[in-house]
Amino acid sequence: MIILGSTGSIGVNALDVCERSGIEVELLSAKNNVELLKKQIEKFRPKYACLQKNDGVLGANLGDTKIFYGEEGLTEALSKTNSKKALNAIVGFAGLRSTLECIELGKNVALANKESLVAAGKFIDVSKITPVDSEHFALWYLNRSAQKIRKMTITASGGALRNTPLSEIYASSINDVLKHPNWTMGRKITVDSATMVNKLFEIIEAYWLFGADISYDAVIETSSTIHAMIEFDDGVTTAQMSEPDMRLPISYAITGSATPNLFRSIDLVALGSLEFRAIDDVRYPVWRLKEELLRKPLSAIILNAANEIGVEAFLDESIAFGEVANIIFGSYEKFCHILPASIGDVFALDLEVREYARSLIKA
């Protein structure tokens, strides 16, 4: 097994599943968490490991593990592996190249990197993809009926600001935005949850995974117990419910089944009730882009690039939280008429949108 992004929450949970299931880990990669990567190498003894930058701490080898560095190093390490399955949990657009390389090498990809499908879904062989997002896992889990599907609905927690007074959202602090009510996640995806960009990403992911002839939507379910629902043509709706534990979709993606004795059953009496809310485009202004993105899914590369720049600026305290949406809207308006015709166009447009988004911050 290959674990890309092994020091993030998805990667850590994936390694837990591998350990419980007796799966050998061949390659680990991380961005900059040197200490955790070192501990993972010492525990799992992979043949190869890769760190984004060479800081001199790991050197060329750590025990029997050969160390690589940077994008080129990761490409070389991947080419040496024999594993037929890779979990890609790299954060952001940076994970796209690894998804493409893994598929090119004949590997199946357990995909936690949303941006791969958001930015380049048209150019990716989705038959080689197993979704790791809890929502898409839930849709896959439910999608085993011969009945024609009318609508797929994924759920959202509402993020850290779901109960914040509207007048206070624009100037929300980093600490406020990062207090996710249900999940422990990385900083960027937690911000994306608060803006609802994350759910736009997941809508586009579902479009590429399940097809264009289905209606897609999302609704807030505050407990994160229901992960997705499918409405069939006969009017019946089915829902997938489980504890909010990412090891469940990871386990299915890696092993094809649930790891025994890992997940608790839901206690419906203890749960008591479920609360559903509509996604309000006043609280979550970027949600206004949903139908436009479904009409032109190739334009989602613009959303992703502008969002990465906006979130980075917010976390660097260069802009207010409310400016993230303004950067997205400004960039989308500028570039929405440009649709990539090849994977090369995707990378070129990504660079152009980022440059423009940065200019909006400076302005």
List the helices and strands and how they pair.
Blueprint: E1 2-4, H1 9-21, E2 27-30, H2 34-44, E3 48-51, E4 61-62, E5 65-69, H3 70-80, E6 85-88, H4 96-104, E7 108-111, H5 114-120, E8 129-131, H6 134-142, E9 149-156, H7 166-169, H8 174-177, H9 187-195, H10 197-210, E10 215-221, E11 226-232, E12 237-241, H11 247-255, H12 268-271, E13 276-277, H13 290-295, H14 300-315, H15 323-335, H16 343-362
Parallel strand pairs: 1-2, 1-6, 2-3, 3-5, 6-7, 7-8, 9-10
Antiparallel strand pairs: 4-5, 9-11, 10-13, 11-12
Helix pairs in contact: 1-11, 4-5, 5-10, 5-14, 9-14, 14-15, 14-16, 15-16
How would you characterize the overall build of this protein?
It is globular, with a radius of gyration of 20 Å. It is built from 16 helices and 13 strands. The longest helix is centred in the last third of the chain and has 20 residues, at 343-362. The protein has helices at 9-21, 34-44, 70-80, 96-104, 114-120, 134-142, 166-169, 174-177, 187-195, 197-210, 247-255, 268-271, 290-295, 300-315, 323-335, 343-362; strands at residues 2-4, 27-30, 48-51, 61-62, 65-69, 85-88, 108-111, 129-131, 149-156, 215-221, 226-232, 237-241, 276-277. The strands form two sheets. The chain has an eight-stranded mixed sheet with strand order 4-5-3-2-1-6-7-8, with helices on both faces. It has a five-stranded mixed sheet with strand order 12-11-9-10-13, with helices on one face. Helices cover 44% and strands 16% of the residues. The chain is of the alpha/beta class. The chain has three domains: 2-132, NAD(P)-binding Rossmann-like Domain (Rossmann fold, 3-Layer(aba) Sandwich), CATH 3.40.50; 134-245 and 265-295, no CATH class; 296-363, Rna Polymerase Sigma Factor, Chain: A, CATH 1.10.1740.
